[in-house]
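Lab meeting, item 3. Inverse folding demo.
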């Protein structure tokens, strides 16, 4: 199971060597001050204008993506940042790391962490805030899922399941359920009140790398690793009928690292977006699984994370070329273009 992590890091130098010469953006793409000095592993939205990113340089950065300028950098982890979570409507940021900890930051406060969540024995790959902002869920390669009180940083619950090497966690909006993906190819749904697994989805053929929940809490997206087009898919599930697969999104040639629901636009079909190690971003019709547009970010290396900012703008984290600001034109024929890099 552990080969998934080590294989990616062994290939990192190959990506850099092959693609560094091609990493200059085309003339029409604006190049802003880089947010990080190394690969960017995760990005999420803090507000309509601000994003938060975490990288292999061990730094958490808040960036004004509209203005193209960095706002604040947080230093506190001693290993690379793996995942980020923000609580909607607040200035709080939670960062997970390979140093086995989760740190809480306040964008409106100082540069030091305001809370530290210690207890995991291996890299933390999942972090999610409860809808009421009072609890934090974390998942790790140590096979455990933990529930924390945010105010006190006290671990309220811990549950360990053999081979459950957690890759990502999501809290169902407005509910008490937490969904997690794992290297054992399984998706589990937890009840945050009992901290027990209430549903286990049928195991997929490949490692599940990421998950996302629709805003109405009805649907789940998960995506798979894979090679030469085998695996590499994203899957839409119906959470109202746990384990019920709706459609699959196939077309990436390498591991699909992230898949997200896109905010709806009046008169347009519901859309899903995905990014892959094959350096492409794909836009899909959520219901039919038709690929509506593919944008290739040549020279970027693996694309690792994707964050919708609004119905027209997305941010994409890459291994070689920093953060990419993408503009989405919705309608009968959606299209995607790169606007800036930073």
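The presenter then showed the designed sequence:
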């Amino acid at each position: 199971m552990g080969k998934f992590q080590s294989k990616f890091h062994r290939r990192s130098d190959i990506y850099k060597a092959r693609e560094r010469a091609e990493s200059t953006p085309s003339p029409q793409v604006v190049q802003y001050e880089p947010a990080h000095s190394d690969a960017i592993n995760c990005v999420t939205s803090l507000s309509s204008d601000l994003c938060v990113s975490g990288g292999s340089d061990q730094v958490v950065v808040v960036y004004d993506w509209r203005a193209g300028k960095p706002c604040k950098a947080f230093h506190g982890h001693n290993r690379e940042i793996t995942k980020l979570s923000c609580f909607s409507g607040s200035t709080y940021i939670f960062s997970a790391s390979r140093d086995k900890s989760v740190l809480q930051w306040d964008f409106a406060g100082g540069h030091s962490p305001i809370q530290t969540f210690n207890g995991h024995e291996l890299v933390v790959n999942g972090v999610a805030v409860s809808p009421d902002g009072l609890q934090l869920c974390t998942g790790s390669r140590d096979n455990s899922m933990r529930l924390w009180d945010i105010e006190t940083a006290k671990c309220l619950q811990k549950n360990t399941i053999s081979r459950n090497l957690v890759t990502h966690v999501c809290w169902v909006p407005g509910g008490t359920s937490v969904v997690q993906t794992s290297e054992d190819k399984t998706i589990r749904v937890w009840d945050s009140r009992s901290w027990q697994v209430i549903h286990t989805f049928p195991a997929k053929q490949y490692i599940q790398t990421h998950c996302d929940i629709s805003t109405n809490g009805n649907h789940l997206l998960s995506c798979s690793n894979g090679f030469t087009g085998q695996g590499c898919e994203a899957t839409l599930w119906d959470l109202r009928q746990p384990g019920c697969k709706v459609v699959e999104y196939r077309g990436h040639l390498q591991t699909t690292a992230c898949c997200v629901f896109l905010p709806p636009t009046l008169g347009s079909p519901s859309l899903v977006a995905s990014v892959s190690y094959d350096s492409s971003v794909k836009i899909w019709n959520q219901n039919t699984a038709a690929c509506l547009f593919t944008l290739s970010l040549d020279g970027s290396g693996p694309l690792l994370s994707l964050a919708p900012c609004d119905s027209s703008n997305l941010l994409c984290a890459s291994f070689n070329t920093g953060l990419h600001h993408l503009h989405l034109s919705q309608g009968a024929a959606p299209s995607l273009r790169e606007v800036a890099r930073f």
